[in-house]
Design goal:
Helices cover 36% and strands 16% of the residues. The chain is α/β, with parallel strands linked by helices and 116 residues long. The chain has a four-stranded parallel sheet with strand order 2-1-3-4, sandwiched between helices.
Length: 116
């Protein structure tokens, strides 16, 4: 995690843990349906959850989903994918839309620290 954190702009585990503890936090999973079938965060934890599949270059339609599901632009938004690379695009999109607390939590397997 630490090796990828700097190059991908991943949030620290402490920052993700703090954001996850906020009852207003929303998790955004940008993996594909096939990847989600291999493991799903909202089934492991009781968390507000939004799925929106993205690629490294495109996250078309995220703006509409954000408006529908994430009205509080100051609440934590924790984004993850398989490795953290795809999550960089939606992080930037949401920041450009005025969201102030957007975190790239890395990959699905990186989030296991929350249960420790």
């Amino acid at each position: 995690y630490e090796a990828r954190a700097q190059s991908l702009g991943l949030a620290s585990k402490d920052d993700v843990r703090k954001a996850a503890a906020d009852p207003n936090a929303t998790w955004v999973d940008v993996r594909t349906e096939e990847e989600i079938a291999q493991g799903c965060l909202h089934k492991l934890y009781d968390l507000p959850f939004v799925h929106h599949s993205c690629t490294v270059d495109s996250c078309e339609g995220l703006e509409e989903k954000a408006k529908a599901h994430m009205q509080d632009k100051d609440a934590p938004v924790i984004i993850f994918c398989r490795s953290g690379r795809r999550a960089t695009k939606p992080v930037q999109i949401l920041k450009d839309l005025g969201y102030t607390n957007v975190l790239n939590a890395g990959g699905f397997s990186d989030i296991d620290f929350l249960s420790k």
